[in-house]
Amino acid sequence: MRGRADTTRTTTGDGTGTDLPRVPTPAPAWGTASARALADASTGRPARSAEPARPHRRTNADPVKALMHRHRELCERAIDPLEIAAGLEAHGLTDRAAARYRHKDVFSLAEEMYARVPRNGEQDEPGAATPSAPAPATGPRGAWALLTLLPGAVCALTLAALTFTSGTARAAVGVTGALAGAFALRTALRHGPLRAKSRPATLTTRLSVGWLLAYALLGDDLLTAALSGGPDGTWPPRTAPLLALTVAAAPAAWCAALYATGARRRLATSRGLAEFTASARPLLLAVVALFTLALTALLGLSGALLDQDVDYAGAGSLGVLLLLARLLIVHGRTHAPAVVLGTAAAVEGLAIASVFAARLPGCDAVGAPVEAAVDALGAGVVPGPACGAAALALLVHALRTLTRASAHASADSAAAGGAP
Predict the structure, then answer these.
(1) H-helix or E-strand containing 21?
(2) What is the pLDDT of residue 263?
(3) Residues 299/312, Cβ–Cβ less than 8 Å
(4) Contacts of 123 (CB under 8 A, 6+ apart)
(5) For residue 82, which of 331, 418, 404, 329 has the smallest C-alpha distance?
(6) How far apart are CA 172 and CA 174, in angstroms?
(7) What distance in Å separates the CA atoms of residue 84 and residue 406, rounded to the nearest whole number?
């Protein structure tokens, strides 16, 4: 017979009762809402609501926000979206990498970052115009324009003084003029559009430039004298190329200013990095061509005034080489100019050294290539190809680096932020 705990009494319609077996209720599983409710009731705590469904693990739903955090200073200081694009490009973010941030290119990514990042200098009025890209900080135009004339003026005065002196006084004038010319050139390069704003030229670059200028002054005659068994005594230097190159500091500065201004204008109006590059390359080629024409005219004028023959190929390619090297240094690219200028100087030095080394016993073959080339084409066969090839190498490098938006970004924007 079942106990009362195991039965339940059910009353029928006629008033009689029937005992039925009780069906046991299964205990709630531990961890469920019912079990937690029973546990709260037994301990006297208020019942807790059912636990909401656990959300899925979040992924990086806003990758642009993380990029904005890494480049916060860049975005706050930028004056337009292309300034941000230039900074991102400077840190190695390409159009392909922009796809990770759900954008087709760097510029569209920069536009979103520019629109989303709050900046301290917000426009006070809704209708205020967006500030245009600032012009390069080159100082008062009259000041640096006059300073670029100093090297040529010092060189001309030195040459004029040399014609009226002789002996020890002539040597003193020459040394004083060389030092004054170097100081004038350094002053011109420290102001205006030829000023290196971030990293100055390396010592290797300065030594290489000094050697190349000295070779333009004395190198061809020294090579000719060495091939004829000399040198015996002294010989007049070729001052016409040096005078033209020092005077060319002025058109070089104007060409650099023209390129910087044109590049900044294109940087402000371009709608993408590729568009800026496509418009900056013809500008750079036009500036180099303009300087080449000016230098050619100065070489001809200097040769006529001093009654000297001028090696247009050697001196002209040297001037273009120096212009391209300075443009790269101005925009913070110092490694390539140092390597290329050093290589050109080494080629010229090895050419002269091989002629003297051929005088050693059993080393006649060392100087044979240089001797054969000079006999066939003249002494200008050394500086022309050396400086011409170096200038061509720097031109190719400049077309790749100086036509990028990152080369013309402000120093603050380029330095802000970390790697993407």
Answers:
(1) strand 17-21
(2) 86
(3) yes
(4) 130
(5) 404
(6) 5
(7) 9
| 172-to-178, 179, 216 alpha-carbon distances in Å | 10, 11, 21
Q: How far is CA 63 from CA 38, 80, 99, 302, 420, in A?
A: 45, 21, 11, 62, 11
Task: Specify the pLDDT at position 339.
Answer: 95
What pLDDT, in 10s, does the model give residues 288-309?
A: 999 999 999 999 999 999 999 9
Q: How far apart are CA 66 and CA 86, in angstroms?
A: 18
In one-letter notation, the amino acid at residue 18 is T
- Write the DSSP string, 248-303: THHHHHHHHHHHHHHHHHHHHH-SSHHHHHHHHHHHHHHHHHHHHHHHHHHHHHHH
| Residues found in the chain | 420
Query: What does the alpha-carbon distance between residue 225 and residue 47 come to, in Å, rounded to a whole number?
Result: 108
CA nearest 299: which of 255, 245, 249? 245
Which residues have a Cβ under 8 Å from the Cβ of 284 and sit 6 or more positions away?
Answer: 259, 398, 399, 402, 403
Q: Which two tokens stand for residue 293?
A: 């024409």
Residue 334: strand, helix, or coil: coil
Query: Which residue do the tokens 């080159």 mark?
Result: 138
What's the one-letter identity of residue 394?
L
- Other C-beta atoms closer than 10 Å to the C-beta of 44 total 6
d(CA 8, CA 20): 5
- What digits encode the pLDDT tens for the residues 202-221? 888 999 999 999 999 998 88
Phi (first) and psi of residue 82, to 5 degrees:
-70, -25
User: 36: how many CB neighbours lie within 10 A of its CB?
Assistant: 17
